[in-house]
């Protein structure tokens, strides 16, 4: 299985290397939002004196992941609609390797884009206090978050009837951080909006990453975040495998 997954991942990575504008395109929108909130809205948003660039970066990273996994769905859709997935099933390779190759490609491409976003953050004044352990924990949380959204993207990639349909599922994922604590404290929000913002998955993930970057206690946020991520991830994994079996 590992050899098959590695070989198929290499095929997908070659596609990305032939079209590096994919990673650039994924990064453009989050960077534009980053610049907009930092230099246009930042002065009007009270964050208790915190470095607003530090405050913004976790949410921008999550938006980046939401944008990127749409391309995973598109790659799966193209392979499925083009008959490549069915052709691979006739070869003596592990069935699960076909999906895992897309998942690993998503993790690698997201890692590259995340490094680019963090680099832009440093240029804009991002000054984390985290030590090595804090950075490793933040990377781990972000990787698990990416893994969950990637398995989620497999489902529309296999079931969509058009390229637009395959990528459309990511729009709510990109929008969800705006209804969280990613850009402003939830205390400033109206009652129903505040309740939703404080009890949806993105807020706990954002607060966890923010605390890790600032080398502050994560409290219960990390456990809530992991519960959301692992719970949704397992559900999406099971549904993706079931959908894959039906599709092929």
From TrEMBL:
Residues 21-247 form the ABC transmembrane type-2 domain. Its main location: membrane. The chain crosses the membrane at residues 21-41, 56-77, 98-126, 132-154, 166-184, 222-241. It holds the Pfam family ABC2_membrane. Coiled coil: none annotated. It is a multi-pass membrane protein. It comes from the Bacteria. InterPro entries: ABC2_TM, ABC2_TM_bact-type, ABC_2_transport, Nod_factor_ABC_transporter. It is found in: Cell membrane; Membrane. Keywords: Antibiotic resistance, Cell membrane, Membrane, Transmembrane, Transmembrane helix, Transport. The keyword Signal does not apply. PANTHER family: NODULATION PROTEIN J. Belongs to the ABC-2 integral membrane protein family. This is Transport permease protein. It comes from Myceligenerans crystallogenes.
């Amino acid at each position: 299985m590992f050899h098959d997954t590695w070989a198929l991942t290499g095929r997908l990575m070659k596609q990305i290397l032939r079209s590096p504008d994919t990673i650039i395109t994924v990064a453009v929108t989050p960077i534009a939002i980053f610049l907009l909130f930092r230099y246009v809205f930042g002065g009007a948003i009270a964050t208790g004196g915190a470095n607003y660039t530090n405050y913004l970066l976790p949410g921008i990273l999550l938006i980046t992941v939401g944008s990127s996994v749409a391309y995973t769905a598109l790659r799966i859709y193209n392979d499925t609609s083009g008959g490549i997935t069915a052709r691979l099933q006739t070869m003596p390779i592990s069935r699960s390797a076909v999906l895992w190759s897309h998942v690993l490609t998503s993790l690698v491409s997201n890692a590259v884009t995340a490094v680019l976003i963090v680099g832009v953050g440093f240029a804009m004044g991002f000054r984390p206090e985290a030590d090595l352990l804090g950075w490793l924990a933040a990377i781990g949380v972000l990787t698990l978050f990416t893994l969950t959204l990637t398995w989620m993207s497999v489902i529309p990639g296999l079931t969509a009837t058009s390229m637009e349909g395959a990528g459309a599922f990511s729009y709510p994922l990109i929008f969800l951080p705006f209804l969280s604590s990613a850009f402003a404290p939830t205390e400033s929000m109206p009652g129903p909006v505040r309740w939703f913002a404080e009890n949806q998955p993105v807020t706990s993930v954002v607060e966890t990453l923010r605390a890790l970057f600032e080398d502050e206690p994560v409290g219960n946020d990390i456990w809530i975040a992991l519960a959301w991520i692992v719970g949704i991830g397992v559900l999406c994994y099971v549904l993706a495998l079931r959908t894959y079996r039906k599709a092929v």
